[in-house]
Automatic annotation (TrEMBL):
Lineage top rank: taxon: Bacteria
Compositional bias per record (Low complexity), positions renumbered to this chain: 163-172
Comp. bias intervals (Basic and acidic residues): 9-30, 73-84, 94-107, 135-147, 174-191
Keyword line: Membrane, Transmembrane, Transmembrane helix
UniProt organism field: Thalassobacillus devorans
Pfam annotation, one family: YtxH
Acidic residues bias: start-end ranges: 108-119
UniProt name for this protein: Gas vesicle protein
Length: 191
């Protein structure tokens, strides 16, 4: 926004200078008309005045020299003013160029800074994502280890149950054999 305001101010300055130049040209036209009118009036008055030929020629020569001198003075002053305006316009345009260049450089540096900040934010996010991924991997490994331990524990329990069942089965079969032996002995005794 500040850049737009500066641009607007620069445009207004250029417009103001153009208006001043137009007003000066208008004054110049009036001055030029006055000089030409004075010369024509002087020549007319000399030509219609009753004077001798030599006197008339001297008067015309004198007034012509005066008019030429005034025209030269006027052209010199006009030339100086035009040179001043040209120099002023050149300086203002250089200043505007420099302002635009500075603004452009500032914009570029701001864009670079924002790009760097975005890059830094992206790197921070990537690092955070990596940390999250790493912690998730550790959690996953921990869960897998816990599952493995649970499986090992369950296998150990199953083995112990199988041993107990095997022991019970053996003791049951021993009891059956004893019972059968007792039955046989009882049967033998009963006979």
């Amino acid at each position: 926004m500040a850049e737009q305001q500066k641009t607007q101010q620069a445009k207004e300055e250029v417009k103001n200078q153009a208006e001043k130049a137009k007003r000066a040209l208008g004054k110049r036209d009036v001055a030029t008309g006055t000089i030409i009118g004075g010369v024509v009036g002087a020549a007319t008055s000399l030509l219609f005045a009753p004077k001798a030929g030599k006197d008339l020629r001297n008067d015309i020569s004198t007034q012509t020299n005066t008019a030429v001198g005034k025209c030269k003075d006027f052209s010199n002053s006009t030339r100086e003013k035009c040179t001043d305006w040209k120099n002023t316009a050149t300086e203002k345009s250089q200043q505007l160029k420099e302002k635009f260049k500075k603004n452009k450089d500032n914009e570029q540096s701001q864009e670079e800074q924002s790009t760097e900040e975005q890059t830094a934010e992206g790197q921070n996010e990537a690092a955070a994502t990596t940390e999250v991924d790493t912690s998730q991997e550790k959690q996953t490994e921990s869960k897998e280890q816990n599952k493995q331990q649970d499986q090992n524990t369950n296998e150990d329990k199953n083995k112990q149950k199988n041993k107990q069942n095997t022991s019970k089965t053996k003791s049951n079969s021993n009891k059956k054999e004893e019972g059968e032996t007792t039955l046989k002995t009882d049967d033998d005794t009963a006979k």
